[in-house]
Specification:
- One of its GO terms (cellular component) is mitochondrion.
- The chain is of the alpha/beta class and about 240 residues long.
- It has one domain: Rossmann fold.
- The protein is built from 9 helices and 6 strands, in the order H-H-E-H-E-H-H-E-E-H-H-E-H-E-H.
């Protein structure tokens, strides 16, 4: 028994040790594992453009309303925030009710909801427009005093280097207003006073408002196609 044991070929496997990879290949003739090619990932669908629209209590509520209508026609996803004074101004200046205006937006956020998605820089947005923008809101954005969702979201736009347009409605302007506008422009925002273009020879306020809204959305590379552009002197 012992002679036959020692006369045989002693392998690591026979004395309780694990065989080497080469021995496993020789003994078992195993085929290498086949690795399947991973399925290609489908191309993600491009998301809709997304813009935050904020309305404050400054006069010019129709501009915010027309802005929402234009963005809806352009298939841009809108996130609306309205102050309580914006709602009061809408009822006073227009034939719309605040509920009708909110229905124009894809998403509506309460101005006191500081946990809304738009309050975070991780929320993907293509920009924000405050229309109309009161001097109070302008001052809050300038100072970084984020006491409501409008000023907080505007602060996010600035820190994330995204487009922020403030449609400032006030006249005449004090040094405080001008200083705030200058500093916030240096921080990256765009001040857009809705100055009417008289060269279009508008038949009424509606055409003037359409022209202002069209120029506002030009700043986001969006063309409403609903206003006359300057093409030189037309005799």
């Amino acid at each position: 028994m012992l002679n036959s044991f020692f006369s045989g070929t002693v392998t690591p496997h026979s004395i309780g040790q694990s065989p080497s990879p080469s021995e496993m290949s020789a003994d078992h003739h195993s085929e290498p594992p086949v690795t399947a090619n991973p399925a290609p990932h489908p191309n993600p669908q491009p998301r809709r453009r997304r813009i935050v629209v904020a309305m404050t209590g400054a006069t010019g509520a129709i501009l915010g309303i027309k802005c929402l209508i234009a963005l809806r026609r352009l298939n841009v996803e809108t996130h609306l925030v309205m102050s309580k004074w914006a709602e009061a101004t809408i009822k006073y200046e227009t034939d719309y009710h605040p509920s009708n205006v909110k229905a124009l937006a894809d998403h509506v956020h309460n101005i006191n909801d500081m946990a809304a998605p738009i309050s975070s820089g991780s929320f993907r947005a293509d920009g924000m427009i405050v229309v109309p923008c009161s001097m109070k809101t302008l001052a809050a954005i300038h100072s970084g005093f984020c006491d409501d969702l409008i000023s907080r979201t505007a602060d996010v736009m600035l820190k994330e280097r995204r487009r922020l347009v403030l449609v400032a409605r006030e006249t005449p302007l004090s040094e405080i207003h001008l200083r705030n506008m200058l500093e916030i422009t240096r921080a990256g925002a765009i001040i857009f006073p809705p100055v009417p273009a008289f060269y279009i020879k508008a038949a009424g306020i509606e055409e003037l408002a359409d022209q202002s809204v069209g120029r506002m959305l030009d700043l986001f590379d969006l063309d409403t196609g609903e206003f006359e552009r300057w093409n030189g002197w037309n005799n």
